[in-house]
Amino acid sequence: MILRGDVLFRQGDFHHTMIVTDPKCYGDVSALTKPNADQSIEVIHAASIDTAVYRELIDIPKSEAKNNTFTFYRPVAPSLRNAVAYASLWAFYRAPGGKVTRAGTKVPLTRYSYDQLLESGADRSRYSGAQAARHSDQAPPFEFDALYRAFKWASRMRSAFSENRGTTCCAFITACFQASVIDHYMDGSYAKVSKGLELLTELRGEKLPKEKLEGEWVESGPKKKKIALGALREFSNPGGFSSRFDVNDYCKFVTKEILGREMTVEDMFPSALWVDAKFNYSKNFERMLAAPNSGFKRIL
Predict the structure, then answer these.
(1) Strand partners, 111
(2) Contact in structure between 216 and 235 (CB atoms under 8 Å)
(3) When comparing pLDDT for 101 and 83, which is higher?
(4) Start-to-end C-alpha separation, the chain
(5) DSSP label at residue 34
């Protein structure tokens, strides 16, 4: 059985990350044996490079016929249960015919971040930053800015996930789980989440000037693509105000101020989320979910 909130990865031409909102027939295996059973499943994902964050149906057999394979992981840590609720807040529904709707909300559409080219020809998109991380085959480390963004995303219950720069498939799903963890430990209190974000904003260092972030670039990947410095983790993350402190120093300070007890990143987040979500990519995320004691278990 597949359940709401499960994470699925599709691997074929691309490695893609999604979260289940409605398992349909896959929630009851016996239903799949009925004549003419609908073998679709409803998911939320940053759909493709030219679209946005959508809730929609995908047809598993048709996708498998195109040489795609699927793996499913279930979040088991209690702090992860609200990830699908966050994803649902930010997703527009896309019907099979292509019509996009989002009734009852004015939350802006979050686009897929791809090929945002500057006059220099350098790409400032978040896709390019995630791909640069993928080329290294390393997990983008959970440092100060990862903690800061987890609080920022958890505070955005009433606004867009990203109004301007957009997101990528794996980054979005990772961020929803990190937001869920913050919401869990802040007791579901918007005031506490906002206070944590306020404290971390005050503790954040200075970013490089925009003219440097967008005016300079490096060549990345096998095709030597020009990537603006602002798209890369090592340049766009300013870190905390002092290098004398690591992320756990900041985490313990904020949790002490809000909750009255110190907590480290390791205390709060399951190990699958010890990653900078903004730069995470599907191969790495699945690898982290598959590791022992990740906070997730593989079900299919």
Answers:
(1) 52
(2) no
(3) 83
(4) 9
(5) S
The reported pLDDT for the residue numbered 117 is 94
Is residue 95 pLDDT above 90, yes or no? yes
pLDDT tens string 131-179? 999 999 999 999 999 999 999 999 987 677 987 889 999 999 999 999 9
DSSP assigned state of 112: B
Q: Parallel, antiparallel, or unpaired for β 92-94 and 100-101?
A: antiparallel
Residue owning tokens 């802040």 = 186
Between CA 130 and CA 280 the distance in angstroms is 6
Helices (H), the chain: 60-65, 83-90, 126-136, 144-154, 169-185, 190-203, 210-215, 233-236, 247-259, 265-268, 282-290
Take residue 109 and report the two structure tokens written for it: 């559409």
pTM to 2 decimal places: 0.96
How many Cα neighbours within 13 Å face the side chain of 49? 9
CA distance 56 to 181: 25
Show the tokens assigned to 45. 């994902």
